[in-house]
């Protein structure tokens, strides 16, 4: 379904779980293999097979403005699909937060979406970021080495100073609100965030709110870069439990509590005014 351009893989899984997909008239389970001779329908409508040479695929570069949401949900006001207004079904590759702007790809090719997004494939994404106070050498050093967010340590990355309040950062990760969280950890607040490059594709002179088709040269470079990429996810994040960091004296040891070892008991005691509850928490070794 994603290869055909009907939807993304995640959306396809949701449709299958809801029983809205049939293969040869029968409701399938997740992971069911489909042959070229099989008939796949969604809500009764046939899903067309992808052309073997992918000549019917669409690849778009869009300069997303602030305020546009990277979702295909039509009921969401300011969604990226309505903003572009393309006649064919497309979906974004990855996302940019609503307060962020800059380059994002959209396509009807579900195969390339998964290859580009996989964390282990390590494709460069470049951002230009402004913050609320002067950038220090220590800030650049810490951002470059990695900081603890979301139960892991961000991968080493390239960070350079552009001006007193502006820096450029090149990531190969895509953690949720990664740059904003990294800055917050170091007591900086992001003012503006703009993605200027994905892999070999530059934002260039594309104006805010405008989009264009990726050129054949750009697509050749992208296809070459993802030629050996996996379509399936690998868990490359550091384990959340017993994670020890030795970056410097400010970096703390992060551990995960086994909630199965916790016991919760409560005791209620009546008073003249109201009932009070005391919660006792004990942790097994």
How widely separated are the two ends? 48 Å
- Tell me the total number of β-strands: 16
Strand percentage: 25-35%
The main β sheet shows up as: 9 strands, mixed
Q: Helix fraction? A: 10-25%
The average pLDDT is 81
Question: Topology of this structure?
Answer:
Blueprint: H1 9-17, E1 21-23, E2 40-42, E3 45-46, E4 59-64, H2 80-84, E5 91-93, E6 101-107, H3 110-117, E7 125-131, H4 137-145, E8 148-149, E9 152-153, E10 158-161, E11 166-171, H5 178-185, E12 190-198, E13 201-202, E14 211-213, H6 216-225, E15 262-269, E16 276-283
Parallel strand pairs: 6-12
Antiparallel strand pairs: 1-2, 2-3, 4-6, 4-14, 5-6, 7-11, 7-12, 8-9, 10-11, 12-13, 15-16
Describe this structure in words.
β15 and β16 (276-283) form a beta hairpin. The protein has helices at 9-17, 80-84, 110-117, 137-145, 178-185, 216-225, and strands spanning 21-23, 40-42, 45-46, 59-64, 91-93, 101-107, 125-131, 148-149, 152-153, 158-161, 166-171, 190-198, 201-202, 211-213, 262-269, 276-283. The protein starts with 8 loop residues before the first helix and ends with a strand. With 285 residues, it is α+β, with helices and mostly antiparallel strands. The protein is built from six helices and 16 strands.
């Amino acid at each position: 379904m994603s290869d055909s351009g009907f939807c993304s893989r995640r959306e396809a899984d949701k449709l299958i779980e809801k029983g809205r997909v049939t293969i040869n008239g029968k409701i399938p389970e997740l992971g069911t293999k489909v042959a070229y001779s099989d008939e796949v329908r969604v809500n009764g409508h046939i899903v067309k097979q992808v052309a073997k040479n992918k000549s019917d695929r669409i690849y778009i570069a869009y300069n997303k403005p602030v305020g546009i949401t990277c979702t295909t949900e039509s009921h969401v006001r300011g969604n990226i699909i309505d903003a572009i207004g393309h006649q064919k079904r497309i979906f974004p590759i990855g996302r940019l937060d609503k307060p962020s702007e800059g380059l994002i790809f959209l396509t009807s090719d579900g195969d390339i979406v998964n290859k580009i997004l996989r964390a282990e494939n390590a494709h460069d994404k470049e951002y230009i970021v402004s913050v609320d106070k002067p950038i220090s050498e220590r800030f650049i050093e810490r951002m470059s080495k990695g900081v603890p967010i979301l139960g892991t340590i961000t991968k080493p990355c390239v960070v350079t100073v552009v001006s007193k309040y502006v820096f450029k950062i090149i990531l190969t990760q895509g953690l949720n609100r990664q740059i904003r969280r990294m800055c917050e950890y170091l007591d900086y607040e992001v003012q503006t965030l703009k993605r200027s490059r994905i892999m070999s594709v530059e934002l260039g002179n594309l104006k805010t709110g405008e989009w264009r088709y990726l050129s054949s040269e750009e697509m050749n470079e992208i296809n070459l870069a993802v030629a050996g990429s996996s379509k399936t996810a690998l868990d490359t994040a550091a384990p959340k439990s017993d994670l020890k960091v030795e970056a410097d004296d400010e970096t703390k040891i992060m551990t995960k509590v086994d909630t199965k070892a916790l016991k919760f008991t409560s005791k209620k005691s009546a008073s003249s005014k109201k009932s009070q509850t005391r919660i006792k928490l004990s942790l097994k070794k």
